Write the structure tokens for this entry.
Amino acid sequence: MNKSLLKYLSGSLTRMLLLLASASMLSFFLVTASPMNAVDAFLGEINVSDEQRAHIEEQWDLDKPPLQRYVIWAKRALHGDLGRSVSLHQPVASVLRERFKASLLLMGTAWTLSGALGLVLGVAAGTYRDSWLDKIVRTFSLVLASTPTFWIGLLVLVVFAVELRWFPLGLSIPIGRLASEVTWGERLHHLVLPALTLSITGVANIALHTRQKLIDVLESEYVVFARARGETLGQIIRRHGLRNIALPAVTLQCASVSELFGGSVLAEKVFSYPGLGATAVEAGLHADAPLLMGIALFSVLFVFAGNLAANLIYGFVDPQIREGGRSSV
């Protein structure tokens, strides 16, 4: 490992730790300032005496000042103990691990589909600028960019699940079946609609940026020189176009991880998909502070990892950036 990469990774690790500390403090005090009472949400319609309520608050450290509670939580978190979910009655770490598996499959599928489809549409529109194909792609992208995720989810649900009945209404596995008995084909059948919804929202940005970047490349002087040498349009796209649009496409796709995570909250809720997004909504409705804190920290780590991956890929995709990093050390 060279010195420039080591220096970059150490700087990134420092920024990540500062970001985690800031996000944990902000999340904790926002949860503390929430008007919802965790004990009331936990008890529901169950009536208990004042002594029993005080005992619950003592067990959950709710009788202590917020700053002291945060310090207690932070000390436990540093030792790997994120607490216990009030609503699910399980350790927060176990809930995150279980729900992330479902979310990872959903977000990974949507991320791959949106990147591939956006790149193909952008290249097609940029290659045949101002054609009927270009107009369709631009209109399709502009409409998608201004459409809420939950509305697309409801529309997809009504058309493909209710009217055509091609896909199930929701959940990640069939109702009444044990997870161990479900085949991969059945899991993918349940995954299609939420993954399609989540991927559609990410197509527009990639397609529009790729189209404009390819148009800039095709109007450049070196492409004019290539045409003069007798290169065909296909050779120009392959030799000059794809190489130059790869970096902005990777940048946008990796930067969209945060939007993907936010979109998954809505998509999972619409399709009752048991991932981290749906879990975050349930934790908020039940004032489940430990689970909300765990999901907040995990989302920060997830988005940070996406941005870090983008920066590391730059060096491999663009040799100029790699050489610049070496020269700056």
Remarks:
- Confidence is low (pLDDT under 50) at residues 325-329.
- The CA atoms of residues 254 and 310 lie 5 Å apart.
- The radius of gyration is 24 Å.
